[in-house]
Automatic annotation (TrEMBL):
SMART domains: HNHc (SM00507). Transmembrane segments: none annotated. This is Putative HNH nuclease YajD. One of its GO terms (molecular function) is endonuclease activity. Residues 54-108 form the HNH nuclease domain. Coiled coil: none annotated. Belongs to the HNH nuclease family.
Length: 122
């Protein structure tokens, strides 16, 4: 079977050619700030075990299954996730006052802003 043509790194502006689609070594993790699970630990080690699953269901029910970010903007969209208003990396807790239902799109935007320091927190 013939070998596939090399593809450029997915990082915007990088022309490094790769045998497998994705990011080059230089851009593999720096643009998104993710760490491998070996560095982060399992979901249970990070505090997202069965206790979190029960808390998540409670928050989704409390917020009537609606994305609170969209609701504040005058839109009604179903929530599929629960988000820490003040994220854990900045001292947020799993207290119910610090949690809200959120849709996937809003969660991606919020997480992106936080990981790039654009959320206003210092």
């Amino acid at each position: 079977m013939p070998k596939s043509a090399p593809t450029p790194c997915r990082h915007h502006g990088c022309a490094q050619l790769l045998d497998v689609p994705g990011y080059c070594e230089e851009h593999a993790r720096d643009s998104i700030g993710w760490q491998s699970d070996q560095q982060r630990g399992t979901r249970h080690q990070r505090g997202y075990g069965s206790r979190w699953d029960k808390l998540r269901k409670r928050i989704l029910a409390r917020d009537l299954g609606l994305c609170q970010t969209c609701k504040r903007a005058g839109r009604l969209r179903p929530a599929s996730m629960v988000d820490h208003i003040l994220n854990k990396a900045r001292g947020g807790t799993d207290d119910e006052k610090n949690l809200e239902a959120i849709c996937r799109d809003c969660h991606k935007r919020k997480t992106g802003r936080e990981s790039h320091g654009l959320d206003g927190a210092k």
